[in-house]
Amino acid sequence: MKIAIITRFGMPLAKEAVGYYYRLYYLVNGLVKRGHDVTLLAHPKSKVKANLIKVKVNKMEWETQLFTYANFLQKYSGQFDVINSQADHLNCFFQPFIKTPIIHTII
After folding, report:
1. Which of 23, 39, 59, 63 has the most CB atoms around it within 10 Å of its CB?
2. What distance lies between CA 62 and its chain's CA centroid?
3. Against a cut of 0.85, is the pTM above it?
4. Can you tell me the distance from the alpha carbon of 23 to that of 2, in angstroms, rounded to the nearest whole number?
């Protein structure tokens, strides 16, 4: 299955990360290990086995994050079977315009 995962950009996903970023690191790598084709929109220093689309991080305001998510969804959404949004409520605004199912995970 082709899966896109959209994250918050505050910290890299890595084994040594904490909290949300630590759990998501294991989710992403677990999906890859099970044979899924995973693309991740995340912090540029993330250490994952997925295809990483690096987001330049400079203390993004929520508006900048919103445009980053919108650009990603507009450009790539049709390439995936499902999109998992870990970006709180921000991607809910795009659901009506995207044909690919979006799973919204709020942690």
Report:
1. 39
2. 15
3. yes
4. 20
